[in-house]
Specification:
Order of helices and strands: HEEEHHEHEEEHEHEHEHEEHHHEEHHEEH
Radius of gyration: 21 Å
Distance between the termini: 24 Å
Oligomer: single chain
Strand order of the largest sheet: 4-12-11-10-9-5-8
Bound molecules: ligand KE4
Length: 424
């Protein structure tokens, strides 16, 4: 297998042979596939083997890989130069599309990754409120900035401890951890840190402990308690933005945050992300305000060509029922998995986002997600890959369905599920 050879070489060049840890297939015990190309719903490894792809580059490829119109606009943009470090009209157009489609965004800043979007939004919340402490939820992932790589401290009063080497305790102590879907864990932190919380940041649908849906009124509760305490509510919509609806989870669940972070789909597969929100809040961002944030390649002319084309296509496709069709496909796969695997799995699904947990426990939060049998997931992953289905190499990631997944793809996926269910 050429992947084996390439991986052996890669490991001599890069940490773990990869440029992002999850790609190393550590929890599924297999040599990672090296990808040669992708088109539509398919991905092809360096041995020319075709797979139906449910990773979709971890979310961006909602219309399928290598969409002709996106590629054409990117190729055209390249001929005008790759980067200027100066404003371009396409940034206006992309910013306007984001503002016109994400309900709570009135003003937006383009950046280069979801991590950078989150890091900046949290800094804005601190700058706007003049407060240092923040609340995040156990099991939610918001990129790898220091203040986000933390785990719950010993008690509700103490801040968190670093969850990564290299993160000083001082960077972690202002991040407090609450439990997803547990309103009292949030109330307690607000009571014990009165008037000191700058923001609550949440994945409105958690997708980094596997997919866990917000329970009824959870998001509404977060909206109320942050407003009541003078704290900002940040929706990290790097995954849900433009996926659950054109206006993301905030449109889908009708709860509007103060700040939103976007990534993945908004860049059309190129390194482009964004953060934005209420005008009065975004006024604190340099060069208008005194919260500094900058980037050499922010709003890059080639990346904005990809993002702008992607969003324009989504606006068009929405009128043709894109999101209803994605919900239908996601629901069909989820329902089929439940019928094939029965009580041995719990499936959470919303729209084109789903996760299969190998547990007989309803997965409603981080604790219950942890009951999943990760060894069984590894067997499932490997068996599905051997049957031509490319899934996330971790129990605690999501399955992404795209507009390019055809009925035939789903039929083939169901056939593979039937075979695999007997093997693992
Ligand atoms: P990036 O810095 O990877 O562009 O975005 C960070 C991020 C922020 N917020 C949410 C909700 C996210 O899911 C992510 C990144 N998602 C992971 C997949 N779970 C990216 C894959 C990877 O880390 O290689």
């Amino acid at each position: 297998m050429k992947s084996d050879e390439l991986y052996s070489k890669a490991k001599t060049l890069m940490p773990g042979g990869v440029n992002s840890p999850v790609r190393a297939y550590k929890s599924v015990g297999r040599t990672p596939l090296f990808i040669h190309h992708a088109k539509g719903s398919k991905i092809y490894d360096v041995d020319g083997i075709e797979y139906i792809d449910y990773v979709c580059s971890w979310g961006p490829m909602i219309l399928g890989h290598a969409h002709e119109k996106v590629l054409n606009e990117v190729k055209k943009a390249c001929d005008f130069g790759l980067s200027f470090g100066a404003p371009t009209s396409r940034e206006n157009e992309l910013a306007e599309l984001i503002i016109n489609n994400i309900p709570s965004i009135e003003n937006v800043r383009l950046v280069n990754s979801g991590t950078e979007a989150v890091m900046s939004a949290v800094r804005v919340a601190r700058g706007y409120t003049g407060r240092d402490k923040i609340i995040k939820f156990r099991g939610c992932y918001h990129g790898h900035s220091d203040g986000m790589l933390v785990k719950a401290g010993s008690g509700a009063l103490t801040g968190s401890r670093p969850d990564s080497a290299g993160v000083p305790y001082d960077y972690a102590k202002n991040t407090f951890i609450a439990e997803y879907n547990d309103q009292s864990s949030v109330s307690r932190l607000f009571e014990e840190n009165k008037d000191e919380i700058a923001c609550v940041i949440v994945e409105p649908v958690a997708a980094n402990m596997g997919v866990v849906l917000p329970e009824k009124n959870f998001l509404e509760f977060l909206r109320e308690i942050t407003t009541a305490n003078g704290a900002l509510l940040i929706f990290d919509e790097v995954i849900t933005g433009f996926r659950l609806a054109l206006g993301g989870a905030q449109e889908y669940y009708k709860v509007h945050p103060d700040l939103t972070t976007l990534g993945k789909i908004v860049g059309g597969g190129m390194p482009l992300a964004a953060y934005g929100g209420r005008k009065d809040i975004m006024k604190v961002v340099a060069p208008v305000g005194d919260v500094y944030q900058a980037g050499t390649l922010s709003g890059n002319p080639v990346a904005t060509a990809a993002g702008l084309t992607m969003l324009r296509l989504l606006v068009e496709e929405k009128e043709k029922g894109l999101y209803e069709k994605l919900e239908e496909k996601g629901n069909r796969i989820a329902t089929t998995i439940r019928s094939i695997f029965g009580q041995s799995v719990w499936v959470n699904q919303v729209g084109s986002l789903l996760s299969v947990f190998f547990t007989d426990v309803p997965v409603k939060d981080y604790e219950s997600a942890l009951t999943a049998d990760t060894q069984k997931y590894a067997r499932y992953f490997n068996a599905m890959l051997d049957n031509g289905i490319y899934l996330a190499p971790s129990q605690f990631e999501a399955m992404f369905v795209s507009a390019a997944h055809s009925d035939d793809d789903i039929e083939k996926t169901i056939d593979a599920l039937k075979v695999v269910s007997k093997q693992i």
